[in-house]
């Protein structure tokens, strides 16, 4: 398998604890592959749900401000000294990101009750939260010292370098059931495409379904951001590509997005690990670099099609 | 009495207040199966709001709607969806979807697997054969209305035909003359053959005159005239409530009033 250290498949299956290669397999390479797969699933599925929920192909997990809420919490945790014991300080960004994303989701939730669940005002709330979060992170990076600044910007670029097994197991336990629950909502998501009123007339409890899906995708985004920082564009590009290939039936769209999200992030992470070895490139930079132009092409193609 | 109730949807003394503005006041309306009922009225009279109350989308501030003797709000949402369907003026789809998939969404309240002959039958009667495999977003407004009609008919279909209450908000607004006639003839036929009630908002009073059994005229949130066509579509009623300068003629073949605006 590819990486700075060349490993053979046989060293994995020999399972010799004395073998250095086996140690790298078990403690570095395997957890990382697993993490790339699971985060890829989480980001692309949450993107699919957000697009369906907002009935907007440009809706993105970052749109509601959940990612920037998590980013702000991490920035606070990194810059403001908390005086925690060393073994905890490793987990601080993770816990902070998780708390931040849930706090923002809760806030959006309360505000959405005020606006009676109107999704377009929810979108505006997301924009406001993004602006606020962005400027607060800016202030924090301005007052931070050099080391903190570097940590902060690295986290913002996204990376899959967290490879403790305990962390991966927690991530799996959160993401897999959430993805399955979302799949159970595929039919409701299809009906919501007709609009809130028509979905209501077809027997859907619209606001309840919207709330459930909002919470489920917030769990995905919160978990993903807390483990891997902000990995951009996956949630935007994958669902749109799958819509072009398989159409817009969520029963097919959701699993195909999950699968291709997993593959794309695994490939991107492998590239990020190997292109500039022995150093590593943040995978979030790579996904944005690849996703941006591709998405641009997608929009142009749509425009051409409409003009014909 | 209880037997009769099961064929009726009734709004009783409905009041609706939104943002401190009275939208509907003391509206009572009965929609019986086997009838084609039309709501007419000037712009902003509250026709669409009344629709939303009768279909259970808005809860009335005062008064109540009863479907088969049971309050609309007390119905289980899925069961209600099998009894009444609604076609809005326009439905926009954010993502590309073929027309046939949209028609099939109408069947979602039903647990049973999709019956293909039924879908084909509805597509035939709404004359959507040539449209079903096209992308809904690229259809014209009138073609979209025909697809939406097929969707709501599929929603109410039981065994041989549609049954229940079908609400159509200006179903003919984007249709050409031929398709206006076809749609209204089809609705007329369905109402006569099946236990179905069609309730429409129409702006074209001549269409209302030719095809309605009952006409309700709404103005500023109240019903100001109701009855059969000859009672409501009269020169006196229309000039009073629309304020338009018009003449009523007699349709020479059908004894129906015919509205002509004065230039």
TrEMBL record, chain A:
<keyword id="KW-1133">Transmembrane helix</keyword>
<feature type="transmembrane region" description="Helical">
    <location>
        <begin position="30"/>
        <end position="50"/>
    </location>
</feature>
<feature type="transmembrane region" description="Helical">
    <location>
        <begin position="62"/>
        <end position="84"/>
    </location>
</feature>
<keyword id="KW-0812">Transmembrane</keyword>
<protein>
    <submittedName>
        <fullName>Transporter permease</fullName>
    </submittedName>
</protein>
<dbReference type="GO" id="GO:0005886">
    <property type="term" value="C:plasma membrane"/>
</dbReference>
<keyword id="KW-0813">Transport</keyword>
<dbReference type="Pfam" id="PF01032">
    <property type="entry name" value="FecCD"/>
</dbReference>
<feature type="transmembrane region" description="Helical">
    <location>
        <begin position="213"/>
        <end position="240"/>
    </location>
</feature>
<dbReference type="InterPro" id="IPR037294">
    <property type="entry name" value="ABC_BtuC-like"/>
</dbReference>
<keyword id="KW-0472">Membrane</keyword>
<feature type="transmembrane region" description="Helical">
    <location>
        <begin position="163"/>
        <end position="182"/>
    </location>
</feature>
<feature type="transmembrane region" description="Helical">
    <location>
        <begin position="90"/>
        <end position="109"/>
    </location>
</feature>
<dbReference type="GO" id="GO:0033214">
    <property type="term" value="P:siderophore-iron import into cell"/>
</dbReference>
<comment type="similarity">
    <text>Belongs to the binding-protein-dependent transport system permease family. FecCD subfamily.</text>
</comment>
<dbReference type="InterPro" id="IPR000522">
    <property type="entry name" value="ABC_transptr_permease_BtuC"/>
</dbReference>
<dbReference type="GO" id="GO:0022857">
    <property type="term" value="F:transmembrane transporter activity"/>
</dbReference>
<keyword id="KW-1003">Cell membrane</keyword>
<feature type="transmembrane region" description="Helical">
    <location>
        <begin position="283"/>
        <end position="300"/>
    </location>
</feature>
<feature type="transmembrane region" description="Helical">
    <location>
        <begin position="121"/>
        <end position="143"/>
    </location>
</feature>
UniProtKB/TrEMBL annotation, chain B:
<keyword id="KW-0067">ATP-binding</keyword>
<feature type="domain" description="ABC transporter">
    <location>
        <begin position="9"/>
        <end position="245"/>
    </location>
</feature>
<dbReference type="GO" id="GO:0005524">
    <property type="term" value="F:ATP binding"/>
</dbReference>
<comment type="function">
    <text>Part of the ABC transporter complex HmuTUV involved in hemin import. Responsible for energy coupling to the transport system.</text>
</comment>
<dbReference type="Pfam" id="PF00005">
    <property type="entry name" value="ABC_tran"/>
</dbReference>
<dbReference type="InterPro" id="IPR003593">
    <property type="entry name" value="AAA+_ATPase"/>
</dbReference>
<keyword id="KW-0813">Transport</keyword>
<dbReference type="InterPro" id="IPR017871">
    <property type="entry name" value="ABC_transporter-like_CS"/>
</dbReference>
<dbReference type="InterPro" id="IPR003439">
    <property type="entry name" value="ABC_transporter-like_ATP-bd"/>
</dbReference>
<dbReference type="InterPro" id="IPR027417">
    <property type="entry name" value="P-loop_NTPase"/>
</dbReference>
<dbReference type="GO" id="GO:0016887">
    <property type="term" value="F:ATP hydrolysis activity"/>
</dbReference>
<keyword id="KW-1278">Translocase</keyword>
<protein>
    <submittedName>
        <fullName>Hemin transport system ATP-binding protein</fullName>
    </submittedName>
</protein>
<keyword id="KW-0547">Nucleotide-binding</keyword>
């Amino acid at each position: 398998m590819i990486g700075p250290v060349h490993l053979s498949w046989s060293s994995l299956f020999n399972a010799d604890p004395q073998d250095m290669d086996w140690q790298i397999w078990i403690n570095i390479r395997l957890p990382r592959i697993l993490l790339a797969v699971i985060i890829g699933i989480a980001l692309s599925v949450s993107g699919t749900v957000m697009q369906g929920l907002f009935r907007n192909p440009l809706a993105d997990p970052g749109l509601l401000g959940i990612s920037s809420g998590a980013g702000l919490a991490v920035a606070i945790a990194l810059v403001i000294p908390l005086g925690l014991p060393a073994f905890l300080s490793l987990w601080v960004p993770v816990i902070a990101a998780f708390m931040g994303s849930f706090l923002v989701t809760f806030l959006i939730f309360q505000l959405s009750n005020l606006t009676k669940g109107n999704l377009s005002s929810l979108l505006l709330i997301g924009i406001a939260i993004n602006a606020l979060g962005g400027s607060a992170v800016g202030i924090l990076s301005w007052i931070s010292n050099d080391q903190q600044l570097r940590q902060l910007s690295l986290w913002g670029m996204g990376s899959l370098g967290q490879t403790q097994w305990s962390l991966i197991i927690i991530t799996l336990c959160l993401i897999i059931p959430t993805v399955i629950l979302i799949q159970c909502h595929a039919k409701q998501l299809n009906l919501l495409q007709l609009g809130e009123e028509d979905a209501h007339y077809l027997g859907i409890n619209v606001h309840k379904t919207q709330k459930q899906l909002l919470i489920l995708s917030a769990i995905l985004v919160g978990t993903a951001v807390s483990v891997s920082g902000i990995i951009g564009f996956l949630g935007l590009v994958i669902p749109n590509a799958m819509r072009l290939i398989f159409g817009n039936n969520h029963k097919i769209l959701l699993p195909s997005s999950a699968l291709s999200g997993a593959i794309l992030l695994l490939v991107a992470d492998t590239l990020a690990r190997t292109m500039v070895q022995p150093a590593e490139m943040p995978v979030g930079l790579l996904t944005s670099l690849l996703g941006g132009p591709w998405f641009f092409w997608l929009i142009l193609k749509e425009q051409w099609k409409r003009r014909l | 009495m209880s037997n009769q109730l099961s064929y009726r949807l009734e709004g009783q003394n409905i009041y609706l207040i939104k943002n401190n503005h009275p939208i509907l006041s003391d509206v009572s309306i009965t929609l019986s199966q086997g009838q084609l009922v039309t709501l007419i009225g000037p712009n902003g009279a509250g026709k669409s709001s009344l629709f939303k109350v009768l279909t259970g989308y808005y809860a009335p501030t005062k008064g109540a709607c009863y479907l088969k003797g049971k309050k609309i709000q007390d119905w289980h949402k899925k069961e209600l969806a099998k009894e009444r369907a609604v076609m809005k003026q326009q439905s926009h789809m954010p993502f590309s979807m073929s027309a046939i998939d949209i028609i099939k969404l109408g069947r979602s309240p039903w647990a049973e697997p999709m019956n293909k002959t039924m879908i084909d039958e509805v597509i035939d009667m709404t004359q959507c054969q040539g449209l079903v495999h096209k992308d809904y977003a690229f259809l014209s407004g009138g073609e979209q209305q025909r697809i939406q009609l097929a969707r709501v008919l599929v929603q109410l279909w039981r065994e041989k035909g549609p049954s229940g209450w079908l609400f159509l908000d200006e179903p003919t607004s984007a249709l050409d003359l031929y398709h206006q006639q076809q749609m209204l003839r089809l609705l007329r036929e369905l109402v006569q053959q099946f236990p179905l009630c069609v309730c429409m908002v129409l702006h074209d009073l001549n269409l209302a005159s030719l095809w309605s059994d009952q006409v309700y005229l709404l103005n500023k949130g109240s019903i100001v005239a109701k009855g059969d066509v000859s009672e409501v579509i009269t020169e006196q009623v229309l000039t009073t409530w629309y304020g338009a300068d018009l003449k009523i003629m007699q349709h020479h073949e059908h004894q129906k009033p015919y509205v002509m605006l004065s230039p």
